[in-house]
Amino acid sequence: xxxxxxxxxxxxxxxxxxxxxxxxxxxxxxxxxxxxxxxxxxxxxxxxxxxxxxxxxxxxxxxxxxxxxxxxxxxxxxxxxxxxxxxxxxxxxxx
Amino acid sequence: xxxxxxxxxxxxxxxxxxxxxxxxxxxxxxxxxxxxxxxxxxxxxxxxxxxxxxxxxxxxxxxxxxxxxxxxxxxxxxxxxxxxxxxxxxxxxxxxxxxxxxxxxxxxxxxxxxxxxxxxxxxxxxxxxxxxxxxxxxxxxxxxxxxxxxxxxxxxxxxxxxxxxxxxxxxxxxxxxxxxxxxxxxxxxxxxxxxxxxxxxxxxxxxxxxxxxxxxxxxxxxxxxxxxxxxxxxxxxxxxxxxxxxxxxxxxxxxxxxxxxxxxxxxxxxxxxxxxxxxxxxxxxxxxxxxxxxxxxxxxxxxxxxxxxxxxxxxxxxxxxxxxxxxxxxxxxxxxxxxxxxxxxxxxxxxxxxxxxxxxxxxxxxxxxxxxxxxxxxxxxxxxxxxxxxxxxxxxxxxxxxxxxxxxxxxxxxxxxxxxxxxxxxxxxxxxxxxxxxxxxxxxxxxxxxxxxxxxxxxxxxxxxxxxxxxxxxxxxxxxxxxxxxxxxx
Amino acid sequence: xxxxxxxxxxxxxxxxxxxxxxxxxxxxxxxxxxxxxxxxxxxxxxxxxxxxxxxxxxxxxxxxxxxxxxxxxxxxxxxxxxxxxxxxxxxxxxxxxxxxxxxxxxxxxxxxxxxxxxxxxxxxxxxxxxxxxxxxxxxxxxxxxxxxxxxxxxxxxxxxxxxxxxxxxxxxxxxxxxxxxxxxxxxxxxxxxxxxxxxxxxxxxxxxxxxxxxxxxxxxxxxxxxxxxxxxxxxxxxxxxxxxxxxxxxxxxxxxxxxxxxxxxxxxxxxxxxxxxxxxxxxxxxxxxxxxxxxxxxxxxxxxxxxxxxxxxxxxxxxxxxxxxxxxxxxxxxxxxxxxxxxxxxxxxxxxxxxxxxxxxxxxxxxxxxxxxxxxxxxxxxxxxxxxxxxxxxxxxxxxxxxxxxxxxxxxxxxxxxxxxxxxxxxxxxxxxxxxxxxxxxxxxxxxxxxxxxxxxxxxxxxxxxxxxxxxxxxxxxxxxxxxxxxxxxxxxxxxx
Lengths: 95, 490, 497
Ligand SMILES: [Mg+2]
Ligand SMILES: [Zn+2]
Hints:
The complex is a heterotrimer. In chain A, 35% of the residues lie in helices and 9% in strands. By secondary structure, chain A is an alpha+beta fold. Chain B is built from 16 helices and eleven strands. In chain B, the strands form two sheets. Chain B has an eight-stranded mixed β-sheet with strand order 4-6-5-10-11-9-7-8, sandwiched between helices. Chain B has a three-stranded mixed β-sheet with strand order 1-3-2, with helices on both faces. In chain B, helix 10 (309-324) packs across helix 12 (356-369) and helix 10 (309-324) packs across helix 13 (374-395). The interface between A and B is large, with 55 and 66 residues. Strand 3 (87-91) of chain A pairs antiparallel with strand 10 (150-154) of chain C.
């Protein structure tokens, strides 16, 4: 099995999602099932095929360097779980 | 006032314009219908006061002769759209009571044209699902039931609330979004019309992102013409979305009713899949016959990479989603859980805030992007995606549009497919190809199956050729003469 | 391989090898992907748009000016401009990273390989290869000291455009590293693409340090194979030349000690603590980073027009290397003076304003020594010099025309620095005009010889002793006597050659 409990543990840490120890194994089985189904992609010959990263054949539009936004502190922190003096207050980060 | 709620959007707009009734009247009728339809669980937030306020303003504009194209028409808004001052949750616990300080471009376009908002519509959490069962607010119940049965059916997903609200006549039309089929499959399951336009037609600004390269907004409506009217308002270039197409939006309604004589309709043989109910096959044949009668030429085409669309989608969409949903971290808005340190706070917040399907997709997405797997999965999927898009380009050499079934089954019972993710994913087998290729596609109700449940046919057009899609779906709608409505049990 | 690049260890000689990642803030008005203002000193979250705060459904739109500055800088680094590039997401969680990812450029940066010529203090020079320059977003700021139990987050800096300039591992000593940063800074300031303000963090360096056995670097240069180099550690965000040097020296010693004790170096990110002069590990080891780069699906490929690049190229100002060469030929300056004037302080413009009609060497000396020294002491940049270039020119003119001696000019300069006005006015007001009147000098000389017959005899025997009389005359005349005149008169009177 390609996706095992250890893989799920590692991926869950990267994704910052707590998964109880006892759920790692069932989750691994489930994801492994999906990945095995996805593996049928290997039947497709994609040699020399340019990966398609966007659905539109267009290039990136550019905007002028003008200040059109900002100065909306109340809107920025309107939904904050905790805020003081315009700052977001978040759990203590220890560096 | 059930007469007002059973009107099509077009008929309602005509009535409003001719002052047969006021916006406040038709809005109140819908507010009452919404309240009466709570057993369907289509709305997650009703905004009657706001609706009446907007309706009164519409009436003033109608009286002043400054009415917009949608003036006074009450609509439902999928909860994926951020609506200024009105809670938006994407039907996830992680957003808590998020109160957007901004209006999505699509809803701003609609309201700018005079539309009235009845409230926010239920959906699968972050639009991830095909049965509306992943919503933090519980599933939506399809107004349709099996003939003589009483089992609750899914309206499909993720825009299950939108499809249900339109099918149950509790709004004149609704906004929806489609990442892998989330407009078209629920439209098919509820006997409504749903169109996903060309990628880039509708701005994604202010729409909670699921998979950025696939997400497109579109309407669910009672008729093809209604869908055309709504899309005309929703679409348009938006400089705030770098993927928005800088093209004119035609009056899509003007294409409905146009002759389709001489158009070449491709029938892709790869859409005949194992295990598809015979009735769907039959309906498809019927659709082909209707278009032939309308003067179309039918051609056989091949889209050889069709079967790889779903697995490619289940790499691309989760990968993008895993990154798009990283912002839900409990720091600036939404749910914040307790924890012993920062990492634990993140982990607990996201474990408590996201539902099982969303977590599953974030994990898959994180996995396929992680070191050592990127090339094997993500790049491979994007290459397959290119092949799928190339298949369509090939097809356009011999046809002008494609006709396929919308979904491989009719609406199924709630709970029936929740245990098997792949079985659930297969709902989107016919719809997901056009998300990958960015093409416009519509689902039109075409008939009922033996159980009395609606079935839809899908028309797919060239990029930016919604006009042809609307002409053909108008012809199909007319030929099918689909008039059935769900029997009111709520 | 020169000996000075090696460090003696207990078990033999080691070499340091370094590559730098310089983050230079683009001098734009608005952010890289939003219309919020870029600036310094605004209140918390005042320069934040809903895009910068990563509200649901918000989308990035690229700033054209920032693209232009990246191209400009790329041209200044003689680098390849990639007409097609791409933005990618670098995914990680941190409270001051609102999106949960940084929009950066991973495998298709806007600028490719280039090179920079860097001079050492001794005048010798070396070439540093540039690997790439890419555009990316800055993060917000976490403030840890306002509350013992919480961290405050200000997103004003979040989304500000940075150019990350990545060098090849071509730096060998801490002095070279500092000189390289100075050179990059000079180029950026000349181009106007970044203000180069180290103190505000508008220019910051990440230093990748590794050590290897003597000879390893040479093998690396011959083969381009990193196996000849040691495992590197990245020291993040060092924002002064002095700290860069301290951090490198500490880190190299730390690595050598580990290796000599038989240990191995773990590739990691480290932080320099200026108060202790040490580097320390930033992230716990079990949290190995996996950034999961992938193309940002909210953005399309960035395609720039070759004609636009040509246009930008045509508008480039004279770069430090070219300017240095010109200063040497046009004004006859020494390589040293020309290098200092074109260094990261950008004194050249000041010099060229002052030099018209004056002695170039004198002007250069006054700017390089007196003015720069005074500016440095007060922590000022040449752009904020309280003394205008025209006053330096006037001062030198006073010297050239013998109005003041060089020595008195120093006194005049002190008064200029104190803000007392133009040099001529100061000389006038304070009576500092040099005495060239031979009569007045002769009178003083005669008086001193008469008063000191013994000293006069001594000078006749030993002419070098004349200096004592010069000093006395100067003292008597408050330093205002023309030194040449004093010398000539003394020699005549004392009868020495
Ligand atoms: Mg770096
Ligand atoms: Zn960087």
